[in-house]
Amino acid sequence: MAKPNKKGPVKTVDIYCAKCKQQIFKYRKGGKGALVKCFKERIVHDFTEQPCICPNCGNQFARDVVIRGVPAFKIIGGKAYAK
């Protein structure tokens, strides 16, 4: 399978923890679909101290995975949302 485009989309979205509403990432998301995964190379600003853990409430919102040969965070359903 093809790797995702490195430059990616220009439009950024803010990703928040669903439990405490703390901002987690500023991310270059493509398309109109639901937030399923975040490629690490598309994250513009990371507000977390530990990967996949909310800095405010300590809730795990994602898993560290490799998708199509590229490191990414796979979002756990309902734990984070994009705005």
Explain what the structure shows:
There is one protein chain. The chain starts with 11 loop residues before the first strand and ends with a strand. It is globular, with a radius of gyration of 12 Å. The chain has strands at residues 12-17, 23-28, 37-39, 43-46, 62-67, 70-75, 80-82. The strands form two sheets. The chain has a four-stranded antiparallel β-sheet, with no helix packed on it. The relative contact order is 0.29. It is built from no helices and seven strands. The chain is mainly β. The chain has one domain (12-82).
Report the order of strands and helices: EEEEEEE
The N- and C-terminal alpha carbons lie at a distance of 29 Å
Number of strands: 7
Give the helix tally.
0
Structural classification: mainly beta
Poorly predicted runs: none
- Major β-sheet annotation: 4 strands, antiparallel
Share of helix, binned: under 10%
Q: Which radius of gyration do the C-alpha atoms yield?
A: 12 Å
Strand line-up across the major sheet: 4-2-1-7
Shape: globular
Q: Calculate the mean pLDDT score and round it.
A: 91
Tell me the domain tally: 1
- Strand residues, percent: 35-45%
Q: Which SSEs are present, and which pair or pack?
A:
Layout: E1 12-17, E2 23-28, E3 37-39, E4 43-46, E5 62-67, E6 70-75, E7 80-82
Identify the notable features of this structure and list them briefly.
single chain, 83 residues, mainly beta, four-stranded antiparallel β-sheet, three-stranded antiparallel β-sheet, 7 strands, 0% helix
